[in-house]
Structure formats: structure tokens, C-alpha cells
């Protein structure tokens, strides 16, 4: 990995139908770790940090990867010394509250800039963007800010669901909610279907995975379908601005 280019693996989700936790992404996880044999897991999107870390530890064991939970010491120090970091899914608001209170934003940005691999799933993918504003989650807690790691300069919507014309649900579709985001913010959104991931390496961003790609939403334009395997590096050139005011 060339220093100066981030090494990121951003998963839409951590499981695929009929597969064990993270099993669908074993090959790309090893690719992202690039020979590293340990990682620090950030479990703060769920309440039971020990159980969550044990789940990740069991999932990484067949790959020969040692896992330590960020809560098993001083989180900032563990991240600062980590070979790699994996931020797990759960509730994005709870995760963002924790990363601010534990002062993790600056250290994660610095380590990623040095070439440390960053792996995220679901909420862990949400926080790799500049803001939590395109999460699907309920605000069960109030973080001090919506600011997140900003490892990519655009927004991501994991777990993207296409509109279902046969659904009896009367609320907004995911597409409608993302269009509402763009009414207030001029920032592209990469909507990732289940089973997909964004791989960022050597200055190239590629949407890949075991599913059928995703969609890109931009202000003033129709959503664009993106096939699995597509190069989406051009997204970094289309970044606009968030709604003026506090991130909160």
C-alpha cells in the first residue's frame, strides 16, 4: 500500500444469506490487511462490547487474524498502535457518540493517512464518510456532532433497498429519503446494496461484492445504477457541500 493513499474496505453489511459472519468477504478482508495479522475492533455501535468482539474474533480466527477489542484498554492508544482497525455495525448514532467521547476521530484519520487499513461494516462504513446524515438508524442517543471520520469525501448509504412497488409500507422509500438529503446537501451518495463493498486502494475506488452493485444519487440528477466491479473513483471529483450550519 502506497503511503498517502487510504487502504479502506467498506462493507454494506457483515453477513450474507446462508453464510457465517463476514464469511462472504474473507478474500477481500485478507487483501485489505495485506499481510497484517492483527487488528483492533471498535465495538461501540452495540451495547455488549465483549460479546461483539468475541463474534469478530471467531470470524477472524480462520483467517489467522488476532483481534483485540478497543474497549479492552485505552481505545485511543490501542488504535494508535494498531496494525489495522475494523469498526463494526450497529447503531450509527451510538457509535458516533462514542468516537467523539473517546477522541478517536483524529487518531483514526492520522493512522489511515499513514496507510493503516480501515475496515468498516454498516455503521462502521457510515462513519468512514464525512457525516452520519445518510445512516438508516434511529437516533437512540445524541452525539455531540454529526461529524465522522471523513475517510472518503462523499456519503454512503449501506443496506440500500430498492423501491418495492408491491410493498404496503406507506412511509418514504430509501430513494425518497436520499433525495430529501440532497434537497438540503449537495454531496453525492453511494447507495450500497446488501453484499456489496467499496474497496479503496492505491487511489482507486471500486464498488464490488457478491451482490448486484448499487446506485449513485446526486443533486439535480436521476440516480445512476452502478454495477458490481465498477470504478467509482470519479466520485471524489463531484463533492459539493453540506447544509450550512452546525453538524448537529
* CATH architecture annotation: 3-Layer(aba) Sandwich
Task: Quickly count the helices.
Answer: 7
DSSP strand count: 11
According to CATH, what is the topology?
A: Rossmann fold
Helical residue percent band: 10-25%
Number of domains: 1
Gyration radius from CA atoms, angstroms? 17 Å
Return the string of H and E elements: EHEHEHEHHEHEHEEEEE
Q: What is the average of the pLDDT values?
A: 92
In oligomeric terms, what are we looking at? single chain
Q: What is the CATH first-level class name?
A: Alpha Beta
Amino-to-carboxy terminus distance: 35 Å
> What is the overall silhouette?
globular
Main β sheet profile: 7 strands, mixed
Briefly note the structural class of the backbone. Answer: alpha/beta
Main sheet strand line-up: 3-2-4-5-1-8-9
* Uncertain regions spanning at least 5 consecutive residues: none
Written account of the structure:
It is a single chain. The protein has helices at 26-33, 49-60, 75-80, 92-101, 105-113, 123-126, 174-184, and strands at 8-11, 38-42, 66-69, 85-87, 118-121, 155-160, 189-193, 196-201, 204-209, 214-217, 224-226. It has 248 residues and is α/β, with parallel strands linked by helices. It has one domain (8-237): Rossmann fold (3-Layer(aba) Sandwich), CATH 3.40.50. The strands form two sheets. Strands 3-2-4-5-1-8-9 form a seven-stranded mixed beta sheet. Helix 7 links the parallel strand 6 and strand 7 (189-193). It is globular. The mean pLDDT is 92. This is dipeptidase E. Pfam families: Peptidase_S51. Its main location: cytoplasm. Belongs to the peptidase S51 family.
